[in-house]
């Protein structure tokens, strides 16, 4: 965890250092919102999405008036929901959440179409920090540790954002995992997210 924290710090400092070297505007902020995450692929039968949240930090620098670069570091709750299955009236598999939590580090290119509105896209690097099956997501019990998901996930992210007055912004984004989350299995992270943020 210490090495991972150092890597995040290094990446964010790199974005800040780059911003300080250019003459254009630099902004630092925070963002948070809701995730609708699942795993997709030929080896998964479209499980229900897990609803969770994300929260973290943002650093943006303008290269030109209409083009900017943005780096982020944030926590992201992902995974999928497991439906209850029964056989002869007996519960075989209880309803549960397969929780896969990441620290995500996207590096995005942003194009401003009109004042305040931008579209953005770029690579995203996911570092798994937790993996478990939880049969009681709203309580303290029901947690079963697992170790089937790979520690690193490479994804592509794309979305849209609108900046409001006073530093606030709203945004929506979709990320898809290019790498397989399970070794030798056609299974990929798929996450829709929507939320708000504030630039200081």
TrEMBL record:
Domain Outer membrane protein beta-barrel, first and last residues per copy:
18-181
Residues making up the signal peptide according to the UniProt record: 1-19
Q: Is Signal among the key words of this record? A: yes
Keywords, sorted A to Z:
Signal
- A Pfam entry, by short name: OMP_b-brl_2
Official protein name in the record: Porin family protein
Q: Which organism is it from?
A: Aquimarina celericrescens
